[in-house]
Amino acid sequence: MKTKGSIILTLLFLLVLSPEFVLAQSSKEQRYKISVCDWMILKRQKIGEFQLAREIGCDGIEVDMGGLGKRDTFDNKLRYPHFQKLFREKAQEFDVEISSIAMSGFYGQSFVERDNYVDLVQDCLNTMEAMGVKIAFLPLGVCNLTKNPELRPELVKRMKVVGDMAARKGMVIGIETSLDAKGELELLKEINSEGIKIYFKFQNALDAGRDVCSELEILGKENICQIHCTDTDGVTLPDNTRLDLKKVKQTLDRMGWSGWLVMERSRDKNDVHNVKKNYGTNARYLKSIFQ
Fold this sequence. Notes:
Elements: H1 4-17, H2 19-23, E1 32-36, H3 49-56, E2 60-64, H4 81-93, E3 97-102, H5 117-131, E4 135-139, H6 152-168, E5 172-176, H7 181-191, E6 196-201, H8 202-207, H9 212-219, E7 224-228, H10 245-255, E8 259-263, H11 275-290
Parallel strand pairs: 1-8, 2-3, 3-4, 4-5, 5-6, 6-7, 7-8
Helix pairs in contact: 5-6, 7-9, 9-10
């Protein structure tokens, strides 16, 4: 029978000779890591986003490319070496990873109507390279293929171009579409580029009355690069009755998926601008389930 002293010595032995034992306890080794969109916490490309993400309890942050609107290009500070260095230093200081780079400007702009779409995506890929990031987020909200199927040929052609641009750099552009999972699989097959995958969003499936877990399983782990793991605004995640996150985790576990779960919405409608309360509550709940 082992004595208390021998057990302690054994544990010390493991700690000294098995550094992976220690690393396994690190947030960087978690199968599921929690991030938040910087524009949703009112810190779009602001240096304070790393400290705020840490205070909320996140492992990472999804950094936006900056506003687009009617501009020719993104309002992107991170194309300049000074800001690249500053952001990298702050990320390290607060031990917050950059989970992804977002082109959220395309929530309100049409990807198929921008003549300079190649330049815009190249700006994003350059930013990703400078910041050591492998995944980009590209919403295709205005290019609604469900309502406007005539956009599909041009969209597919452009996705093939930018997808191959990303693939050459070992990067992935995650697209958010209006399609269901079967429709997204068909779209990916048509695009046929290793650089394009699906950036899955719980809210879209829920709003359309689709089952989140079924959609995830139809897509499969190889086709999902990242997940926006929140619902529409109304209540925070612990009080959300239409999103069963424990079932979601069981599904993702069964699929063998791992990666970043990025908070976008799920804010309390009665206190929507209280960033720390809303996202702190959501982060704690996500970690209680996924970590």
